[in-house]
Amino acid sequence: HQSKMDFFCKLGYGKQDICKVLENLGQEALEDDVLKELIRMGSKPQALESQAQPSQLKLVARGSCSTAPGLQWLGEDESDSSHSLRAIVIDGSNVAMSHGNKEVFSCWGIQLAVDWFRERGHTYIKVFVPLWRKEPPRQDSPIADQHILEELEKQSILVYTPSRKVKGKRVVCYDDRYIVKVAYERDGVIVSNDHYRDLQNENPEWKWFIEQRLLMYSFVSNRFMPPDDPLGRHGPTLSNFLSKKPVLPEKKWQPCPYGKKCTYGNKCKFYHPERQHQAQLSVADELRAKTKVQLALGKEEERCRCSP
């Protein structure tokens, strides 16, 4: 009791408030529960109360947060859903070439993918593109809407992987390794139609990560469309795949197509609304129960006849 008193006194709470909370919760209450109760009662540390009552009025910015500081310590005011969403790492070359039908490096495809994840609320979005894509387009490597790369670089979304020229030859770093490494470290999602088989063989941890966190996509009439079931029919939904805390769907029972004519009893895997408050017995069990009741009634009638 004394150790808890000292602990919360150091935080700045009054002894009277601490005693009231300990009397309500008991001496064996956890420190987190005591702190929550103190915040719920509206008590504040003395240092914060002195700051909350200044001698002169101060101007407060419009739209400023008015939540209690104690809530921030407990993390209860994190209403922003972006904290629960995974980081997004986009294979820029793969997305741009897919949007350009594997003929043109279409930067607009990258912008469509970035906008799709922005609308969902993702805050960490990174696009990796080789540095030589900054150069003027050539006939063998045409680029469309190259100004989009500059805009995304200013927004700290696009990252150029290093490349240089040695004796007239271009030396390019392997951008796929950047993509997988950053996504693995951030525990995020890789957006690409590439399977990265060489990197899967290189590192067993990367192999599992690529298999479980690779988000494939399609472009339908300039519309970025990832699948609703990224890991197959029996896998998670797209919203659960992109969130750190997946939400389990409620189990929905399919009604039995036979209805009251069903003869499976408790072995039927479908939902029977008429059996909601009854024990689902099989047909054989129901017949046995009926015969037992009939035999019991017959014995009682015989006893009544034999009795004087």
Automatic annotation (TrEMBL):
GO terms for molecular function: hydrolase activity; mRNA binding; RNA endonuclease activity; zinc ion binding. Its cofactor is Mg(2+). PROSITE patterns: ZF_C3H1. Pfam families: RNase_Zc3h12a (PF11977), UBA_6 (PF18039). GO terms for cellular component: cytoplasmic ribonucleoprotein granule; nucleus. Keywords: Endonuclease, Hydrolase, Magnesium, Metal-binding, Nuclease, Zinc, Zinc-finger. Residues 250-275 form the C3H1-type domain. A zinc finger (C3H1-type) spans 250-275. CDD domains: PIN_Zc3h12-like (cd18729). Belongs to the ZC3H12 family. This is ZC12D ribonuclease.
